Amino acid sequence: MNEEAKVEGIKVEIPIYNDVWMDNGVVNLYRFLDGVDGVNVNLKTDTLEFEIAEKERFLKGFEDEIKQKRDSVIFVTEKDDKTGERRNIKKDFVLLQYGKKVEGTNVLKEKIYSDSEISERLEQIFENFVSGVSSCILCGRTYRRGIDKLKQAVYPLVTKIRSLSGVRTLKEQYTELCPLCYPVGSLEWCDDGIIYRVFPTSHSLVFIPNICDFKKLNESKSKWINTVLTGERFSNIRIEF
Ligand SMILES: [Zn+2]
After folding, report:
1. Ranges of residues in the chain whose predicted pLDDT is under 50
2. Measured in angstroms, how far is the CA atom of residue 53 from the centroid of ligand 1?
3. Could you read off the pLDDT of 194-212 as tens digits, one per residue?
4. Cβ pair 159, 165 in contact under 8 A
């Protein structure tokens, strides 16, 4: 029997989570996939459906889209007042860790955002989400092989602090994350519909809508996505007098 999962032609369905971060993540994934060749995508009220028609074309397009969003949504470019040098900095509310700088440029440690690891990670995702014996802590789906564990880069409410959720104190379970929840959660940081205001050295306020209907959620966010400021480190709220 061929061990390799057949990716092409596989139809994927992601039902609603009834969870703010993940449901916004699904709509964000829809917006990603809608701009990529080689995949047919359909957003319904309670499900995101997509079918990979051409694997190579799809993976390459998806990778390019992730890199482009990473650089334009997660990172901002700042100019150093003294040296005039321009450098990329991630927005302060983003709970992704920096990796080791590459040629003086900031990079992210998370594999789906790493230039050297992204293509392997995408291959892993689409080869391992087929049914298996493990069951996912976030969605309950069964899957063949996990590719990462539950952590703040995927689901920011995950913490070791019991009063906040304490999920990570349940050692056996937070390792059980399916290969589809991983991209839904970790790519949500690229959502340009998140409204934010950062109070440097103190805290950040983040507004993420809670609408348990994918189509309505997408329509609502579409209304403001093109009106918020882009490329701003501390807030994307437009104030007009
Ligand atoms: Zn899952």
Report:
1. 1-3
2. 23
3. 999 999 989 999 999 999 9
4. yes
Distance CA 185, CA 203 (A): 22
Domain positions in the chain: 11-225
Of 16, 18, 22, 21, nearest in space to 44 by CA: 16
Q: How far is CA 185 from CA 28, 34, 156, in A?
A: 10, 18, 9
Distance 174 CA to ligand 1 centre (A): 11
Alpha helices (runs of H) in the chain, residue ranges in sequence order: 20-34, 55-69, 118-128, 181-186, 214-225
Residue 55 pLDDT: 92
Q: Any idea of the CA torsion for 209, 94, 77, 119, to the nearest 10 degrees?
A: -100
C-alpha 9/C-alpha 212 separation (Å) is 29
pLDDT confidence of residue 130: 79
Task: Answer whether 20's CB lies under 8 Å from 191's CB.
Answer: no
Ligand 1 centroid, distance to 140 Cα (angstroms): 6
Distance 142 CA to ligand 1 centre (A): 8
For the whole model, what pTM was predicted? 0.91
